[in-house]
Amino acid sequence: MDVFLDPAIGRNKSEALFEQLREAIVSGRLHHGDRLPATRVLAAELGVARSTITTVYGRLVAEGYVEGRAGGGSSVSYRRAGASESPTRPTTLSAPNLGLLDTTRWSLGGFDAAPPAFDLRSGRPDPAFFPLLEWRRAMSDALHVAPTGYMEPAGRADLRRALAHWVQRSRAVDADPDQVMVTAGAQQGVDVIARLLLRPGDVVAVEDPGYPPVRSLFLALGAAVVPVPVDRDGLVVDRIPDDARLVYVTPSHQSPTGAVMSLDRRRALLDLAERRDLVIVEDDYDSEYRHEDRPLEPLHRLDRNGRVVYVGTFSKTLAPSLRLGFLVLPTALVHDATTLRSLMDWQPPDASQRALHRFVTDGALDRHLRRTRRRYRERHALVAAFCHDAAEQGLVAEAHHHVAGLHTTVHLPQGVAEAAVRARAGHDGVALGDYGQCWQAENHPEGLIIGFGAVTTDDLPEALRRVDSALRHAAG
Amino acid sequence: MDVFLDPAIGRNKSEALFEQLREAIVSGRLHHGDRLPATRVLAAELGVARSTITTVYGRLVAEGYVEGRAGGGSSVSYRRAGASESPTRPTTLSAPNLGLLDTTRWSLGGFDAAPPAFDLRSGRPDPAFFPLLEWRRAMSDALHVAPTGYMEPAGRADLRRALAHWVQRSRAVDADPDQVMVTAGAQQGVDVIARLLLRPGDVVAVEDPGYPPVRSLFLALGAAVVPVPVDRDGLVVDRIPDDARLVYVTPSHQSPTGAVMSLDRRRALLDLAERRDLVIVEDDYDSEYRHEDRPLEPLHRLDRNGRVVYVGTFSKTLAPSLRLGFLVLPTALVHDATTLRSLMDWQPPDASQRALHRFVTDGALDRHLRRTRRRYRERHALVAAFCHDAAEQGLVAEAHHHVAGLHTTVHLPQGVAEAAVRARAGHDGVALGDYGQCWQAENHPEGLIIGFGAVTTDDLPEALRRVDSALRHAAG
After folding, report:
1. Which of B124, B132, B302 sits opposite A143 (nearest CB)?
2. What number does CATH give the domain A114-126+369-474?
3. Residue B340 contacts by C-beta under 8 Å, 6 or more apart in sequence?
4. Does the beta-carbon distance from A346 to B184 stay under 8 Å?
5. How far is A468 from chain B (nearest CA, A)?
6. Which of B159, B332, B424, B473 could link B357 by a cystine bridge, Cβ 3.0 to 4.6 Å?
7. Could you report the per-residue pLDDT of B44-79, keeping only the tens digit for each?
8. Can you name the residues that pair with B282 across neighbouring β-strands?
9. Is CATH 1.10.10.10 the classification given to domain A7-76?
10. What part of A 215-234 touches B (C-beta under 8 Å)?
11. In CATH, B131-366 is 3.40.640.10
């Protein structure tokens, strides 16, 4: 073995030598039983003080790489794990829950890719609307206080009070601050509830078509996910399987069809929950953006028996990458949900909670919503008109009526495939939502999701013109 | 039924009236089949335009609360769910996984309580050391960019590169940026791995004594958690059960005893992992704070087969409430772990990732660590001297040697109970760590955990004087 010292190393010779010898031993260049050069010899060879070598050998002995020999001198005492095999061979390590993940049909990717020229994907608010200045100020104020140690897993008491008040005022959801849990967006909110309530094999009813990331989450937890059809009145409650333990719904603005769940269905669902000891998870993901006067009341409002878990999020109203949302939990679940949450990630980050608290209580959120509602309403009108015209011309089979949110959906004429339209539009720089991914049923209608959150109002007409052209092309 | 309009309501009369009637129906004051007053009559009564009443009734019909009657007029069509029962009766709702949570022996509480006069609990860094100004600046810079939509679940590519570089430099952990996942502290890191690898009933080996929140997490996932003893050389590898699937260890600075795992044990553990297809989770929670020159190498360094998941955190070096940590994953697990993470909470928040990136790359983190290392070393010396003296005087049976971290541990003499010492110290305004909670074995030694992260250096001597007095008192 060659031992050498890089002259550039300067002062820290003993550290460099230790590291070099250690590496030689661990990598197998020096084998178990190999003798190290005598300290005197190596010192002379390297032109360093003998004490430097002694120190290094001492450390190697202390760390267990080297041992003193009976006849004097030192030898390598380290034996590499699996030394006979190639260190780069592929590991056999595998994730047993990989099977579950595979069944979720959930795919990632494209996060780092360049954004499309025209982004008509769903669930994305306009980054240009983000109240950067106000949020920065709120964050900066939040960071004038030194962070303390571990804090409340359900979130800051002041923020939970503010959110309870806000969700009452804006969505008529009655919530005691104790029932509120601050979460990393809606996704973590559903995760908390699902982990608390579901055992592998439990039956979960979801809307079909529905919201893929939550369906995939249930599958990843080993639940038996049963698709329940959706019509113009929302979830077809009669079709919920008898053995369902949890029902996940988007009653205010069904994701993705836009159906508003009728009062009859709501009553039926609540009745069912009471009869069968069901939990209803209500994801109220984007109804802050109403485009008509008709109010979209949460199901939670009608629940008198603590059967509904309300899931709120600031991903659509502010930005997904803030990771801020909340749950309104039935009182019966508060304690357990909080315990579980503390084991998942202890608590939400403190500074963004402080910032959100200020944002909610000083009216900045309300002002932001008023401003953005108006602007999204313009876009909604453009897209609704486009869909109407396309239906008139037979380019789409049916244009769903959306009273809220940041996307709209249409069905395609017989023989026209979503994939063909999306491919053509993609070729033209337009990314559309993925309607097919929302479906579990095999023979589902072909359709399109047209999001208008992330495209600018100026760009929207051109984007829609390109969708029109893709529709014409796909229709042959 | 009395219908009235609050004169203060002003413009929004139709909204107020709608709400009042809806509430009357939902609450049961108006029953199914009850007739509503004729529009003309009610308009006259309330002194509003008849069109206002017509609009309101129209909305009630549209929402399904009211229906038109054959003979003209409108009647209530809503039937309350469970109307015959008291609306406030307690729900039967329960969490089936509550049983698992109960077995975790994990208790929360006291998060909002006033902090103790002298905080000697473990795992808490000094909030006064937090680099508030630099962090605020980094966050403010991060918030000059409008947040985009959903981003990489494993964290920003630039931050993962920076962390891979940093952990190589500071902890000699070889990591490709693709193997790094940004997490909400170490707890979420372990959660990702545990959810990926464990099925209910799987055997997990943990150190005894060990770190309670992680043990509780495994239990909450339904794992069979087997305690494995710890001695001066760390985890007793021979005692790992044959059917273990995952081993959780703190080899650099065993939590809580402080033992540094010997090289023999490390080799044995890695050999075992390879023979039995085990995964080792290495929690390197506080070894940035070394108090002696002896390096504490991570187990990950010796792993040549991708068996070790390295868990890092900024909770001890910066602050727990930032919720920032990371994993270095074996390549074989990267894809699945990322998929799972996206279903848990999509991604880490963006702004704090940007801030951390800047903090790591511009040297602020290194500067911060140099500053704080020196200051914690002072405290460590004070506590070590105290423990040494107490041992000399027979007040403690054994003072463990801690080469790193923010706490130290001692064993108590025969007949002296931790509870008695902590109660007395608590009475005197001193909060100590909870040693008993770290144990699973029934007949475990009594001991104390003395944390020195959260107490000031000035206060520390007085705090230790009070511990001394509590020890004397408990010894009778």
Report:
1. B132
2. 3.90.1150.10
3. A97, A101, A220, B192, B195, B196
4. yes
5. 26
6. B159
7. 777 788 888 888 888 888 777 888 776 678 888 877
8. B249, B310
9. yes
10. 216-217, 220
11. yes
CA A374/CA A387 separation, integer angstroms: 20
Q: CA A54 → CA A8, A61, B392, distances in Å? A: 22, 10, 34
Going by the DSSP 8-state scheme, the letter that residue A6 receives in this structure is -
ipTM over 0.90: no
CB B313 within 8 A of CB B285: yes
**What are phi and psi for residue B109, nearest 5 degrees?**
115, 155
Q: How many helices (H) and strands (E) does chain A have?
A: 14, 15
For tokens 């929690």, what's the residue?
A: B283
Q: From CA B127, how far away is CA B125, in angstroms rounded?
A: 6
Asked if B61 has any chain A CB less than 8 Å from its own CB, the reply is no
DSSP summary character for residue A420? H
Q: Tell me the CA distances in angstroms from A348 to A188, B298, B315, B320, one per residue in order.
A: 11, 29, 13, 10
In chain B, CATH 3.40.640.10 sits at 131-366
Min distance A476 CA to chain B CA atoms (Å): 34
* Whether residue B438 has pLDDT greater than 90: yes
Q: Taking a C-beta distance cutoff of 8 angstroms, is the pair B404, B253 a contact? A: yes
CB atoms within 10 A of CB A68: 12
Query: Would an 8 Å CB–CB cutoff place A106 in contact with chain B?
Result: yes
- Please tell me if residue B96 touches chain A, with a CB cutoff of 8 Å: yes
Q: Percent helix, strand and coil across chain A, each rounded to 5? A: 45, 15, 40
> How confident is the model over A305-331, as pLDDT tens digits?
999 999 999 999 999 999 999 999 999
Residue A108 contacts B, CB cutoff 8 Å: yes
Among candidates B106, B140, B144 on the partner chain, residue whose Cβ is nearest the Cβ of A339:
B106
Secondary structure (3-state) at B251:
coil
If you count them, how many residues does chain B have?
476
Task: Tell which B residues from 400 to 459 touch A, by Cβ distance under 8 Å.
Answer: 454
CA distance linking residue A74 with residue A30, whole number of Å:
13
Which residue of chain A has the CA closest to B142?
Answer: A136
Alpha-carbon gap, residue A177 to B112, rounded angstroms = 14
Residue ranges, comma separated, of all CATH 1.10.10.10 domains in chain A are: 7-76
B102 and chain A in contact, CB less than 8 A: no
Token pair recorded at residue B392: 């000399």
